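Recap for those who missed Tuesday's class. We walked through two folding examples back to back. For each one, the amino acid string is listed first and its predicted structure tokens come directly after. Nothing is annotated here on purpose, so try labeling regions yourself before you check the end of the notes.
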Amino acid sequence: MSPGEGAGERSACLAIDIGASKVAVAVVTVQGGVEEVGRLEVAAHPVDLFSAVCDLATTHLDRSRVDRVGVGCAGPMTAGGETVSPLNIPAWRDFPLRDALARELGLPVVVEGDARALALGEGRFGAARGVSDYLSMVVSTGVGGGLVLDGRLVDGRTGNAGHVGHLVVVPDGAPCRCGGRGCLEAEASGGAIERRTGRPAREADDAERGRAADLVGRAVGVLASTLDFVRCFVAGSVALGYGAAFFERATASAREVARLSYASDVVLEPTPLGAAGPLLGAAAVAWRGRP
């Protein structure tokens, strides 16, 4: 059974993805159908984001089919998503997202880190079906990840395991929103590329794209050697937008680092879930561990 897959689901769920720059809401069926998608920009609601999310969710809530809500939210957060403190949403510090949503929507709500949710979605609907050990990553406005070992999403002490964006890849490098310097997110994310070049990440030249691929690959190579996996599924506008050249260079970079025999064939692959991945991940969160 793939990570996050339970038995007996008979209804759809409401999926909410709260990312670094956008919020998306949709009804998701147990077969992976994504319906009635709505979106809003985080930056457009600096004060009243929660109200805007609730309004969007209510608009797309089909109560005849939906019996629970799954949320993938940028972190960090406390265990179980009881409170969230997304680095990109200053107004949300120790914000009680789970209970507040449950009150507003009148349904059970399950919250998980957005990139960790994507790992569950990859195992349920994507290329990781039947794969027991893998890393799922997002390289977009920010960088995040979720790690599955022995068929289970690794939670860690506080439920925040998998924050690969905060591996230091450039000692004394660019400042990161986490308070550190040289983190992968501060060096290779879309936001980092734009800050360094003064242009949107999609307009980066070959050298800048290659640098991002190298840094992502090195981080994955270190983790593959440390945690004993060889497959890494990558989503996000930067990685997917840069295409095959990004994945080829990132894989080569990972293999330069992962020299131990059990990790030497590590590979970075594009997720097949595409733009629907975050919402499918949020849906997998709703169904995680459901009897």
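Example two. Treat it independently of the first, because the proteins are unrelated.
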Amino acid sequence: MIFVTIGLAAGTMLVMSLVFSYVLGWANSAFHVEVDPRIDAVMDALPGANCGGCGFIGCGEYAEAVVDSNAPVNKCTVGGESCAANLAQIMGVEIGAALPFRPIVHCGAHYDDRLGRTGYHGEPRCASANIVADVQGCTYGCLGFGDCARACNYDALHVIDGLATVDYEKCVGCGACAKVCPRNIITITPFKAERILAVTCSNKDKGKDITKVCTVGCIGCGACARISSLFTIEDNLSKINYDAYEPVCGIDVIKACEKCPRHRIVFVGKSISEDVVEFTGEVVEPEFKTTVDDTEWRG
């Protein structure tokens, strides 16, 4: 009797396995979606960082966008020019010269430059400190708790004496630092040379108010704008027109830098220097935020 039971069980399992195999085979054929082999080729050519610097969730989504939606082949900041060339070859398209995108920290104040600092004892993160109105006198500047440094997967950003500082030798321009900065003082900008000029301040308050909270912040005096058309004053803050920026700056630009009374127009990039006299030859626009935009400023 027991052998009959075992035989029935085995026979039932065999029949079920055959039925399920047939059903799965039919489903695989009926619901099969043809995948363009170029997607796998693009995936193999990408570095696999999944950093999101291309604007897509990861390398897989970007690969599909390149093949299926004709997304630009030069969006991978980590892979750089060689990666873009490989993708262009796979897709059979031409690619022009592309500028590298790198971050600029629009603040130049270290701890000793900040006035009106208070004892903050909360969670040591910029996102947390940013909702506290009186962490420091300047409600626009770098908080210095290192959210940007923790977000960087390439060890290219460090907080030095309270100020986020980019190591351009390691930076790949993925934009992770800009995404996590609660005050939006890090912008991603196309570098037309290894070093370009930047306004390292983001405070939009009037000059007399800025001098009360920072010893180096831009006071919006307009000296740079009066000397060179490359500069404009918007919301009491000097701004550079990067569309008009040239790798070799004219003498008027150099004089404008020298004229800045707070020395906030500096060169950033490889071999960073704040000596504005020394010269070698899809922008994320600044949208600086104060601590709490709807809260009255008490700096």
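Answers for example two:
The mean pLDDT is 85.
Residues 118 and 182 are 19 Å apart (CA to CA).
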